[in-house]
Amino acid sequence: MSVAITPALVNRLHQAIGSENVLTAHSELIVFECDGFTIEKNCPDVVVFPQTAAQVSAVVKLCNEFDVPFLPRGAGTSLAGGCLPVGGGVMIVLTRMREILEINLRDRYAVVEPGVVNVWLTNALKGTGFHYAPDPSSQGACTIGGNVATNSGGPHTLKYGVTVNHVLGVEAVLADGRIVEFGGPSEDAPGLDLVGALVGSEGTLAIVTKVWCRLTRNPQGVRTMLGIFDSVDDATTTISEIIGAGIVPAALEMMDQGIVQAVEEAFHFGFPLDAEAVLLIEVDGLEAGLDLQRERIVELCKQCGAREVRLAADAKERQKLWKCRKQAFGAIGRLSPSYCTQDGVVPRTQLPHILRRIRAICAAHDVRVVNVFHAGDGNIHPIILFDERDAAQIKRVLAASSEILDECLACGGSVTGEHGIGVEKIAFMRKMFTPSDLAAMERLRAAFNPHNRLSPDKLLPTAGACGHEVKKPMRRAAV
Amino acid sequence: MATSVSSSLPTTHSVTPASQAELVAEVRAAYDASTPIYPLGGGASLDYGLPAKQPGLGMELTGLQRVVDFPARDLTVTVEAGITMQALTDTLRVEGLRLPVDVPQAAQATLGGVIATAWSGPRRFGYGAIRDFVIGIIAVDGRGEVFHGGGRVVKNVAGYDFCKLLTGSLGTLGIIAQVTLKLRPLAEATQICVVPLAELASMDGLLDWLATSDVTPSAVEVFSGPLWREQLGHAPLAAALLLEGTTSEVTWMARTCAEELRKLASGSMRLIPSDDVSNDWQAFLEFPAAEAALSLKATMKPSCVARFLHGVSEVEPAASIQAHAASGIVYVKFPQFPPGGLSRAVVGNLRPLANECGGHLVVLSNPSGQEMTPQSVWGSLGGQLAVMQQVKQQFDPRNLLNPGRFVY
Ligand SMILES: Cc1cc2nc3c(=O)[nH]c(=O)nc-3n(C[C@H](O)[C@H](O)[C@H](O)COP(=O)(O)OP(=O)(O)OC[C@H]3O[C@@H](n4cnc5c(N)ncnc54)[C@H](O)[C@@H]3O)c2cc1C
Predict the structure, then answer these.
(1) Is the pLDDT of residue A465 over 70?
(2) A86-121: buried (b, 16+ CB within 10 Å) or exposed (e) per residue?
(3) What is the ipTM of this complex?
(4) B395/A443 Cβ within 8 A
(5) CATH of range A100-217; options 3.40.50.300, 3.50.50.60, 3.30.465.10, 3.40.50.2300
(6) By mean pLDDT, which of A458-472, B283-297, B371-385 is the weakest?
(7) Which residues in chain B have their CB less than 8 angstroms from residue A197's CB?
(8) Nearest Cα residue in chain A from B245
(9) Of A53, A170, A227, B314, which residue is 20 to 30 A from B71 by alpha carbon distance?
(10) pLDDT-derived band at A472, boundaries 50, 70, 90
(11) Strand partners, B360
């Protein structure tokens, strides 16, 4: 709690959207004090559950009238603290806007409300021959509104592109309460590409109330392979060899021994426990080309020292492999009471280097690390294990994490491939961007959000303050 | 070593900065003097947008054409924005890579110009539009401040996405100086399957087929009208499916098209083999830039393309058309300026039709210069326009970058 929420504002919120859609009791607010980034917590003063864009607009207008900060929230699975109500205020939770409004296969789009969970759309499309391509590992929980706000990726976004490549338009409530449509069911709307600017803006430019999602035709066939390696180096070299050969698989994921052991214990897939790394490789497309693609990949794996390359026998085995991959984070609890993960990106040819550096950095700081990540994109997720009761260890974990991200930047990469800056990585913005880059970003925010009441203190370092300083790592899931 | 661009823009003189630093200095000087600036690429689409009126400085970008970094094995390239599309294509081809975005006049058109106009050719159906390939960008805003967005890796969500914001901004928020692109491997094989069609209904049938067939063409072009006489033979319209992939994939697709589309075709289908593809394909790339008394671009739901084409034929039976049909994008060329002017043909007729079809219509070029207003050229942008104006105000407070040409 931090801003003065007057009874008058609460009253007006009740009138605007119905008292059953407004929470103010501390006991009810407490679940909204953080998202998947649990290191910093702050309760919103009020939580509202609007059911229409008009209601979102009414709430936003009231917040402006009463000069109170406000922010949107979907399912709260964000890993960067995008849903942290800095300074308190009104949290606008969109999970009651949960209709799939239209599915148009012939024109290859669907229109959904922001609270629709990613997998609901996948399920609604089953049997149609089409799918919605962005498939974050959290797809069973996260909302499409949240995906749009964070520009989510997933294993299959390697070939098909991330969320921004699949959003044709949005309806949004602006920071002053106006409801505006950007883009729509057709391509190339005239004027600035503000759809492109809104996707990935982490809820700091507008609140998305409707999304036109592009639908993708299902591939005719798939081949899913499991490459088994005796060394991490061989596995990472294989990844850069595959990409370097101009092959862009549908998905290319890596799990190292630590993760494989945890996953095996949890799901009993039959992974070899003595292998240092496995690659999960999937190619899809026309049947006429698949076996050739598969052969080329198997050959590259072998050339790089793979012990064995297994082919998923059938759809069932394929599903099980993907389940293991997508729920890998759930299995980490078996390894350690706490862990923290990073989301850096490096050019794909730098993967062998960065994995070696991760190992060296973690050894130097005497912390244990395991890896499971979107290898084909160069998007690493080193997971550092620790015990949060050990203060000295926590310090080492933070130092190691930060060194790893610095190394990603030194390789010409980024500190976040899909989780976003949120509050967690604000301090890195000055390392990635020049003062004039950041000034330009502030100008864009000012154009949309001039009073900065919409999700303040996110994404951009504030003038004066040195951004956000992380004091302890977070126990949480990641991709 | 810049070639001077013959420009329809009211430039009093031109400069050709040879480095980003020189570009910044020129923009700062222009800002101090409040001189309008017209960024010039290869001059391939200078009549795009509204005719500019204020005299100003021509900023030729052709002096910025270096390949900055080409880590081919990462499937990315960083280049200065003044590089021509042809030079870029040639550079990439050496490593077996490409940017699958086709543009007319590739020898002239610069990458920066293509990005500024968000030009995306027929292959967008298969691979995406230019916006999907820009992963890093450096630009100079209307005050001469350099800013960059994105980076050099294919996945990156740090900060606001200036790559998207600048793509299609017609140089009105910043002059694009350098770009990093995500690349694709060249296709091993390419063929074109040409399907003559008797009527618009057959085109709809073809699009229906596309929604259920396993064939995955990279482009689906539908064409009709006098400018296509040579390619059409006796058919009133035809479709060309671009088939790309490995040899076995293309062979399979060609055979499947032949089987599955036979019933829809009004005459014999033609298969253009790999060796001859580039010549035939060229026509599909150049059409949007062909001279005409009036050129329009309409976007819509693909299921409405037939209805829209019918509407066009009622306004001008001799219009020539190319549609990226599966993407719902239609280019229309008028042989003569419509007698009722833009107000009847465009504002009163075809634009409302495009709107009803879930889309938009813009005037691409109108050599007559008649009736060119923001409303007639771009149409109504509704509530978005005010937001676009706010963004413009932030990046170019003195309205010096391409003033009067875009939507605001
Ligand atoms: C186990 C696990 C696995 C994950 N795997 C992946 C993965 O593979 N790929 C990936 O990209 N991410 C992954 N994530 C991160 C997270 O799931 C995504 O960022 C997701 O898109 C967040 O959706 P959400 O509905 O939970 O949004 P929230 O967490 O509620 O919100 C995220 C951000 O979006 C804003 N926001 C939410 N809704 C709206 C709206 N309607 N309009 C405007 N702004 C809005 C919020 O203010 C916040 O800044 C994972 C997380 C977990 C816990």
Answers:
(1) no
(2) bbbbbbbbbbbbbebeebbbebbbbbbbbbbbbbbb
(3) 0.96
(4) yes
(5) 3.30.465.10
(6) A458-472
(7) 160-161, 164-165, 391
(8) A289
(9) A227
(10) low
(11) B299
